[in-house]
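FW: tagging you since you asked about this chain on Friday. Here's the raw sequence from the shared folder, copied in full. Didn't touch anything.
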Amino acid sequence: MAGKDESTRKILVVDDNLDSRELVVKILRRKGLELYEAEDGVDAMEQVARTRPDLILMDISLPGMDGYEVTRRLKRSREFAAIPIIALTAHAMKGDREKALAAGCDDYISKPINIHTLYDRVVAHLV
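HL: got it, structure written out here
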């Protein structure tokens, strides 16, 4: 991903909560990133195959296939294993961060998100 200019960076935001998803999309789109959205685990898998994102922001509590399972499947795939996945979740109890990292997430951001640091956290995984 090094060498890509910011405007070509594709981010997939996976969240079943429309308000949460729209907030993240709005923040990152203002920074010039290309955003895609998915509302559940199955939709996320389809969007990854279709859009080939440079990074995924993954909610953990999703209907059907949860974010842990989506992450495990992507990380087991040769084609998608290198895509950084950041858990973006309201699961903020002791051990939740470790559980997300054990599933294959590369980072963990708890909700409510800090709108002032979200972009920096995302960009740190794009270099």
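FW: The radius of gyration is 13 Å.
HL: agreed, and The longest strand covers residues 10-14.
FW: great, closing this out.
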